[in-house]
Amino acid sequence: PVIPCVVSQWSAWSGCAEPCETTYRVRMRHIIQEPRNGGEACPALEERAGCVEYWTRQGTECQQSLIPASITTGGFGKARKKRAAADGSERAGYCVEFQLVAITPGCLHSQQSYTRWMHYLREGHTVCVECQHPALHSPSQHCYGDGTGSQKNQLLHWQAVGNHRCKGTWRRIRQLDTCSCPSVHSFLFI
Question: Is the pTM of this model over 0.90?
Answer without folding.
Answer: no
